[in-house]
Design a protein that fits this description.
Radius of gyration: 18 Å
Structural class: mainly alpha
Order of helices and strands: HHHHHHHHHH
Distance between the termini: 63 Å
Shape: globular
Number of strands: 0
Helix content: over 70%
Strand content: under 5%
């Protein structure tokens, strides 16, 4: 019996984008521009638009089989979903602690980008209740959207395109790290080559590694939910460190 390969995209979008790879190229450029423009000119609310687009992409563009392929299904292990959340928080704490050790509260510290966003807001943002609300919302918008897109759509499309999920992991992680470069404030400032390039490279490397952590969480849990919870834990660990140490 010949197995019929189910396409990732709905028939309409197959005709529009020709292939899943074309879909990834177009959407990455659009989402990258939204991220860059938001961080450079329009603020975090503009960036959130990109997250919301990522949220709905699987339900607008993918077939039912495509959504299952990217991991939108019941986890095979709820224990690993929980473990992933904890590990995400611990890894975030380690990354932002290292930034503090290396660069203190200077602009080279990638954690200060998050701190600047808090300091740019109202004084009330320093209140624990408001901080808890902001953190909770952050644990929803970015993790769900980015995991659907990077560990879901991009990883699956590249896995099929390259006939290698190991290479798909490399390139999806590279793209994930690349789109996070503007999250480092130093990206938009005039710095010397050494004082600017080195912390930016370290930040890129950390985002590359973190992407692999989220891939691992998806594989261990058997669902994209594992990656989402690992990412949510990462946001929690990041915000707790920034709030309690950098602010």
């Amino acid at each position: 019996m010949i197995e019929v390969r189910e396409e990732l995209l709905r028939p309409l979008w197959q005709r529009v984008f020709i292939s899943g790879f074309g879909f990834v190229v177009v959407t990455f450029i659009v989402l990258g521009l939204i991220r860059y423009l938001g961080l450079a000119f329009y603020g975090i609310n503009f960036v959130t638009i990109g997250f919301l687009i990522m949220w709905i992409m699987p339900f607008v563009f993918l077939s039912a089989g495509g959504r299952k392929k990217i991991g939108i299904k019941k986890p095979e292990s709820w224990l690993w979903v929980l473990i992933s959340f904890v590990i995400g928080a611990v890894v975030a704490g380690a990354i932002y602690f290292l930034g503090f050790v290396l660069y203190g509260t200077g602009p080279e510290n990638w954690g200060m980008t998050v701190a600047y966003e808090y300091m740019a807001g109202q004084d009330a943002v320093f209140e624990p209740v408001v901080f808890a609300v902001v953190t909770f919302l952050s644990m929803l918008f970015s993790p769900i959207g980015e995991e659907f897109y990077f560990r879901g759509i991009i990883h699956e499309v590249l896995g099929e395109k390259l006939s290698s999920y190991k290479m798909a992991g490399f390139w999806s992680s590279f793209l994930f790290a690349a789109i996070h470069l503007p999250h480092h404030n130093i990206f938009f400032t005039a710095q010397s080559f050494l004082t600017g390039f080195v912390p930016l490279f370290i930040w890129f490397a950390f985002m590359f590694i973190v992407s692999y952590l989220f891939i691992w969480a998806r594989v261990k849990s058997g669902s994209i939910l594992g990656a989402i919870l690992c990412h949510s834990g990462y946001i929690l660990g990041m915000n707790l460190f920034v709030y309690n140490v950098l602010l």
